[in-house]
Amino acid sequence: MVAMEGAVGAWAWWLGLLFGAVPLLCLALWHSTDTWHCAAFALRYRGRGSNGIRQRLPPGHMGVPFLGETLSLLWYFKLARRPDDFIGAKKSAYGSAAGMYRTHLFGSPSIIACSPAANKFVLQSAECFGIKYPVPELIGTMSVANKNGASHARLRGFILAAINRPSSLQTITTVVQPHVVAALRDWADKGTIVAAKEIKKVTFANICKMFISMEPSPLTDKIDMWFGKLLDGLRAFPFDIPGTASHTARKCRRKLDAVFREELQARKTYKDCDDLMSGLMQMKDEQGKKLSDEEVVHNIVSLVIAGYESTTIAIMWAVYHLAKSPVVLAKLREENVAMSKSKGGSTLTGLMITHDDIPKMKYTAKVVEETIRMANIAPMVHRVANKDVEYRGYTIPKGWAVLVWLRSVHTDPNYYQDPLSFNPDRWDEPAKPGTYQVFGGGPRICAGNMLARLQVTIILHHLCVGYQWELINPDAQINYLPHPRPVDGAAMTFRKLST
Ligand code: HEM
């Protein structure tokens, strides 16, 4: 009897622990990070800021200790494959508020901005929100992407002049097309391709040609490999310990700098090239000052980081959506074949287009815009608050990370009807103000946006005039991290268009 009572008592104790203490402990853990940061914030302002107005953090929750909301982010992006529900869940839980939420992500207390107005506010206020990379040397300490204020504006001026001026785009249009034409012929010979892989190859060949006038060679293969590892390291934890991705990336960065420095020296002695590197070397600012050698090298490497993967993914999504949208492809083909014929080509032999042809390709431009909107290649951009910043009654505390969630604007049915359907005709009307932020905004808006559009346009022209393709797995799942792409890399059959 006594033994039975003892056993019942032990059970009751364990059940009490299971249904009482454990949930309580979990609840305490769940709220501890949020409570900690809110309490620290309240203590700092003691209710009121210097302006006498009550200070509040934006609504939200900072997740579990150490990890914050990282697991929730991974759940929505990786497992559930519903990336927009990460922000959607916040909107349901806390309302749309000021288009800002507090969270804890990537190891920092953070504010997420996710409405057109809030995003614009952060992107435009460069003096309040700066850039700070965990490992600046991976991006290049003298790179435009790493600089703030006046030195940023100066470097940006050089880069825009080098890649965005009509004469550069004109040259680029000419030099990239032979690679594109040869690549498409090669894909058709293969018959079956993984589009992501093949597009990456031709994009890289074009980058080497545009930036440093290099044709594919064992050296460019090595450069490609180093860039791959550098990009892996940029996304990894920033531990400089042998064997880690970050450590390997630092080594690759040094190798890349060395190769580009050597190339730069060669230009000084015997080479005269019409490419981005020579352009950057020769330009002068308003005071007649040129860029230093280190600035040229760091910025060339940065431009490859910014333009390589992004352009590859944009082209891959264009090819993918066109495979699934025969009506769009037919309209695109009609425009491009007409363009080709007007220049003396035929259906199967698209002639090289010139930069002057591009403004005439109106439907193609809509396909390009729609592709880039839907691709959401940069789902968010990172800033850090340089000081306490007030926004619509909320305070963004100094030192907190600010994540400008570009993706949420492009997939919001309030701004784009049926936002997840590929519909280039929606561009018959311009987007509502502030709702097209694929290239960011403000003083850091993508410096290569025209170049990216140009490259997608060129490949679309040659593709649709001469080829047909079908996805092997049209229902393949989509991975959203680190960038959105079908799990099979858009495997497809690819052949010459039969007349
Ligand atoms: C579809 C392709 C592309 C997309 C979606 C894209 C997107 C972006 C975004 C969102 C930013 C803003 C980053 C921020 O605010 O922190 C950015 C910046 C930048 N992008 Fe792009 N980009 C693309 C292609 C390119 C290309 C082809 C180049 C040049 C080769 C390039 C060069 C740059 C540079 C230099 C910056 C930094 C600008 C600055 O800090 O002033 N991008 N890009």
UniProtKB/TrEMBL annotation:
SUPFAM superfamilies: Cytochrome P450. Pathway: Hormone biosynthesis; Plant hormone biosynthesis. Its cofactor is heme. One of its GO terms (molecular function) is heme binding. InterPro entries: Cyt_P450, Cyt_P450_CS, Cyt_P450_E_grp-I, Cyt_P450_sf. Heme binds at residue 446. The chain crosses the membrane at residues 12-30. One of its GO terms (biological process) is brassinosteroid biosynthetic process. Keywords: Heme, Iron, Membrane, Metal-binding, Monooxygenase, Oxidoreductase, Transmembrane, Transmembrane helix. It comes from the Eukaryota. It holds the Pfam family p450. PANTHER family: CYTOCHROME P450 26, CYTOCHROME P450 FAMILY PROTEIN, EXPRESSED. Belongs to the cytochrome P450 family. This is Ent-kaurenoic acid oxidase. It comes from Triticum turgidum subsp. durum. The lineage of its organism: Eukaryota, Viridiplantae, Streptophyta, Embryophyta, Tracheophyta.
